[in-house]
Design goal:
The structure is a single chain. α2 packs antiparallel against α3. This protein has 3 helices and 3 strands. The chain folds into 2 domains: 8-46, no CATH class; 49-84. It has 90 residues and is of the alpha+beta class. Strands 1-2-3 form a 3-stranded antiparallel β-sheet, covered by helices on one side. A hairpin with a 2-residue loop joins β1 and β2. The chain has helices spanning 35-46, 48-63, 69-85, and strands spanning 8-11, 14-18, 24-29.
Length: 90
């Protein structure tokens, strides 16, 4: 599954992605119960592409360390989060 490439930005209560010439397309219109909740949701969603890349980088870095129980849990969590973000079930 391929997502709309980042970076994404928040404008009002929508998340946009701009192409190389500055044309913007809506990635997501934010819903929420309050103004603050909609804005918080917008910022979280806008950070998604960078968060996914950071998780992948962290997974690679953690693989190079000696695993203990905490490390194994972190590795499992990262793998599950990445799979979920990519629409996989593994």
């Amino acid at each position: 599954m391929k997502h709309t490439p980042g970076p994404w930005q928040v404008i009002s209560y929508s998340v946009f992605q701009a192409d190389e010439v500055g044309n913007k397309q809506v990635v997501h219109n934010i819903k929420g119960r309050t103004r603050e909740e909609r804005l918080a949701n917008a910022h979280l969603i806008a950070a998604a592409p960078e968060l996914l890349e950071a998780c992948k980088d962290a997974l690679i870095a953690l693989h190079n360390l000696t695993p203990d129980e905490y490390m194994k849990k972190a590795l499992r969590s990262l793998k599950q989060a990445i799979a979920k973000a990519e629409g996989r079930t593994d």
